[in-house]
Specification:
- The relative contact order is 0.04.
- The strands form five sheets. Strands 2-1-5-4-3 form a five-stranded antiparallel beta sheet, with helices on both faces.
- The protein has 28 helices and 22 strands.
- 53% of the residues lie in helices and 17% in strands.
- The radius of gyration is 49 Å and the shape is elongated.
- Strand 21 (691-696), helix 21 (703-709) and strand 22 form a beta-alpha-beta unit.
- By secondary structure, the chain is an alpha/beta fold.
- The chain binds adenosine-5'-diphosphate.
Length: 865
């Protein structure tokens, strides 16, 4: 029973336990299973049973709530993620589609590659290749490059350059075509690769070639046109030569006033025509690219004065004052092309005078030294009609003038300034203009030229240091310029604008014991007359003060009247430096005493030969021959004639001449050949070379060199004038002049250079006879060796070698004073630098000739020493 009771109790207890513990626990377990199977976190455990079980169920449910909440949140995020992925994928697809569209729409082939391996290409690339896209992907991009282009492409890829470059590509069918590539590094499928855009430039290249060809053809046509114009101009010059020459000769005879007027008109018109022809000739030379420049030592001051001569008369006639101002101590001795610079000056000064009715024209020259160059500033200012603002740029164009009515009034073709600007620019300078209508214009030329180191300064000239001067002039500008010039000469100078004041000052200075040595007196003073004022000045100074008259026009009184009034000299303004100095030296001779130097006359006298020159004129054209003969005759030179080169050589052989004027272009044998033949005979016979002066209508640069190269000593440009012939004769026969004063002092033309300058040689040898002997001995072996080296270089093609050899020869020759040899060497050097090998070779003959002459001269020094 106990057992049974125990069993019963156990059974009851078990039932109770099941109801209170097992059941709720099982329910919890079921719910847990359900949850894990169905993932339904919304289920909850019923809260019942004992206290502990209740707590458990509550805790279980709380946990479920949290799990459910997390589950919700997770779900939300997953949905968002999925949505985003879908969106992004769509966007990507759109972008890829757009890229493909773009890539296939462009005219450029596009290629992605990694170190050459093609990753992707667009359709155009495939088309360019002549195959499909698939054929290209995976292959090496460099395979499609022509061998010549490959290194460049590799280099561009390696340097990651973005600059476009041109290559030759190969199509599938082997055809080659030019292409332009522009490459760039980009991110592609997660990698850094290069994308290259390629463009087929076959058409462009064809167009370029076509363009080049037509441009060349046009240029050629233009050149031919210019050449034609140049030839025509040349042909026109020849008869003009006759017209001008004959008209001038007629003017030199006795004529009735009417006849004189006719002849003068012929001469003037022909001169105008000649100037025009020369402009056109220049213009066509510029067009044809045939403009060459010379390098010769020149003094800008001389060029300014020479240029002024052409307008002096015109300015005087119009009553326009001409002023020249040169900054004191300006480095004006430079190396340049005198003819071209003069041409520029003449154009600017000529225009200034032409377009100015009253007032003045001022030529103002300044320069500053910088390194081995002189930076020149030349201003030509006038008080003329001026140029309207809108037209300023146009006046430098060819055939352009401000307005047609002024053209009728002043003449001209509108070429001058265009040529001027071109010339200046070719020389490395610039010309500008400032102008105001009705007030005037200022043309400014700036130009930097090498300094001429070969010339010495004129230190031997007399100085007027310590002398007092007073400038009495009406014109303010002229007065101050004159004072500056006197100061530059060493005077202590003052100014006054009335003659009365001048007289008073002179009197005062005299009583103070500091008299003026000089009064410059304007001959334009009218009341009282300059003559009477001069008399008063002399009287009031007790004869201590000298008067020099000046004026823009001819002196209004005779030399006797001047002398009578105590004024020694008249200086026409503007006075060129030599003339001014000469006049002052003459006037102040008593004061200069020891310093006194011979006065230099301005104009050479005619017929001033100490004993007659024997001259031969070789010229085929009747009229030109006649002109030359008359010109010579008027210079007191009687001449024989030859009608062509052959006759010239014959006459030379039979006669004895000091000088031959040789036309260059003649039938049978031209002037060059005749000269060579004559030189040949002279060499063979050991004769003293006759002076041969070429007369040529082949104007401008290069011709002189050609003449010299053929053995001529000098050259005259046609039409030859009395002045040019006289100057040439004076240059070559200075000792034959009766009036030594007119012999040119400074000679710029190479004709003054000597075969051997002893002065230079002595200078190099510091005047030591032993050193001289040594130098001579060395030179006699080194010079021929250097000439041989030059000859060898000339046989080859290497222009730099020629240049160097010529340069060496030049240096060596120069240092011992072999001037002529140095000169030819210099020409060869220059030609070589300009790439004219043929010209260089042509000169070898003269080099040898000059070498021979130099060696002879050296031998003489050797024996003399
Ligand atoms: P032209 O042969 O007509 O003088 P240029 O080329 O020398 O040709 O000059 C062109 C034009 O520029 C002239 O016709 C004139 O109208 C103008 N000009 C040149 N210089 C001056 C000046 N100093 N004053 C006024 N106008 C000028």
């Amino acid at each position: 029973a106990i057992f049974a009771v125990t069993l019963l109790l156990a059974g009851l207890l078990a039932v109770r336990l099941r109801a209170f513990i097992t059941e709720p626990v099982n329910r919890l377990a079921r719910i847990a299973t359900d949850i894990s199977e169905r993932s339904d976190y919304s289920l909850r455990a019923p809260v019942g049973g004992g206290e502990e079980l209740k707590t458990l169920a509550v805790a279980f449910n709380h946990m479920l709530e949290q799990v459910e909440d997390r589950d919700h949140r997770l779900l939300g995020q997953q949905e968002w993620l999925e949505k985003t992925v879908v969106e992004r994928t769509a966007e990507l697809a759109e972008s890829e589609r757009r890229f493909r569209q773009l890539a296939s729409a462009t005219f450029e082939g596009i290629l992605f590659h990694d170190q050459g391996t093609i990753l992707d290409v667009n359709e155009m690339m495939g088309r360019m290749y002549g195959g499909s896209v698939e054929e290209l992907v995976g292959r090496n991009a460099f395979e499609f490059l022509d061998a010549g282009s490959e290194p460049l492409a590799r280099e561009r890829v390696a340097s990651d350059s973005g600059e476009p470059y041109e290559v030759v590509l190969i199509r599938k069918n082997g055809e080659r075509f030019p292409a332009e590539i522009r490459g760039k590094s980009v991110e592609f499928r997660g990698k850094r690769v290069r994308v290259a855009a390629l463009r087929d430039i076959t058409e462009r290249k064809k167009a370029e070639a076509l363009l080049r060809e037509s441009k060349e053809r046009a240029e050629e046509a233009n050149r031919m046109k210019s050449e034609f114009v140049a030839n025509m101009s040349h042909e026109i010059r020849t008869p003009l030569n006759g017209v001008i020459g004959m008209a001038n000769l007629a003017l030199a005879t006795e004529l009735s006033p009417l006849q004189r007027d006719y002849a003068q008109t012929i001469s003037d018109s022909a001169q105008t025509l000649l100037a025009l022809v020369e402009d056109i000739l220049d213009f066509s030379k510029i067009e044809a690219g045939k403009l060459l420049f010379e390098d010769t030592p020149v003094d800008m001051v001389d060029l300014v004065w020479q240029s002024i001569q052409t307008v002096r008369a015109a300015a005087r006639e119009k009553g326009v004052a001409l002023h020249v101002r040169v900054a004191p101590d300006a480095p004006t001795r430079v190396v340049g092309d005198p003819m071209r610079i003069r041409q520029v000056l003449i154009n600017l000064i000529g225009n200034a005078v032409k377009f100015t009715a009253k007032g003045y024209v001022l030529i103002d020259l300044a320069a500053r030294r910088e390194k081995e160059r002189s930076h020149l500033t030349l201003k030509v200012a006038d008080t003329g009609i001026g140029i309207p603002e809108g037209r300023i740029d146009a006046i430098f164009d060819s055939f352009t003038q401000v307005d047609a009515s002024t053209t009728r009034l002043f003449g001209g073709a509108g070429l001058g300034l265009s040529i001027t600007r071109t010339l200046i620019r070719k020389m490395g300078g610039e010309v500008t203009v400032e102008s105001r209508v009705g007030e005037g214009s200022v043309f400014t030329v700036t130009l930097a030229l090498p300094l001429d180191r070969s010339s010495s300064s004129h230190s031997s000239l007399v100085s007027f240091h310590g002398l007092r001067a007073l400038v009495a002039e009406i014109d303010t500008l002229g007065r101050s310029i004159f004072r500056e010039r006197l100061e530059a000469l060493g005077f202590a100078a003052e100014e006054t604008d009335t003659s009365g004041d001048a007289v008073e000052r002179v009197a005062r200075a005299h009583t103070q014991g500091r008299p003026y040595d000089l009064v410059i007196l304007d001959s334009a003073f009218t009341d009282p007359t300059p003559l009477s004022e001069a008399r008063r000045i002399v009287a009031r100074s007790g004869g201590a003060t000298r008067v020099v008259f000046t004026g823009f026009s001819d002196p209004p009184f005779s030399a006797e009247q001047m002398a009578d009034a105590g004024g020694a000299v008249f200086i026409g303004r503007p006075a060129n430096p030599a003339r001014l100095r000469g006049a002052l030296e003459e006037a102040l001779a008593h004061r200069l005493g020891e310093r006194k130097a011979k006065s230099a006359g301005e104009r050479p006298q005619s017929g001033a030969w100490e004993y007659p020159l024997r001259c031969l004129v070789a010229e085929d054209v009747d009229i030109n021959r006649k002109v030359a003969l008359y010109l010579l005759e008027s210079l007191g030179v009687v001449a024989d004639v030859a009608h062509d080169g052959r006759e010239a050589v014959e006459k030379f052989l039979n006669g004895e001449y000091d000088v031959i004027l040789m036309d260059c272009a003649m039938p049978h044998m031209d002037g060059y050949e005749a000269t060579e033949a004559i030189r040949e005979r002279e060499r063979a016979g050991g004769l003293t070379p006759v002076i041969i002066i070429a007369m040529t209508a082949h104007v401008k640069t290069g011709d002189r060199e050609k003449c010299l190269a053929h053995g001529m000593n000098d050259y005259l440009s046609k039409p030859v004038t009395r002045e040019s012939v006289q100057a040439a004769l004076a240059l070559h026969f200075p000792n034959r002049l009766a009036d030594k004063a007119i012999a040119p002092k400074k000679v710029a033309a190479p004709t003054d250079s000597q075969t051997l300058s002893l002065a230079r040689l002595r200078e190099s040898a510091m005047n030591d006879p032993e050193i001289i002997a040594e130098i001579v001995a060395t030179a006699r072996t080194t010079l021929p060796a250097q000439v041989e080296r030059l000859a060898e270089a000339l046989r080859g093609e290497a222009v730099p070698l020629m240049e160097r050899a010529a340069h060496t020869l030049k240096g060596a020759s120069r240092s011992i004073g072999a001037e002529r040899l140095a000169e030819v060497a210099h020409l060869i050097e220059k030609d070589a630098r300009e790439g004219n090998a043929d010209l260089c070779r042509d000169r070898l003959g003269i080099v040898r000739k000059e070498l021979a002459a130099t060696l002879t001269a050296l031998a003489d020094v050797g024996t003399a020493g």
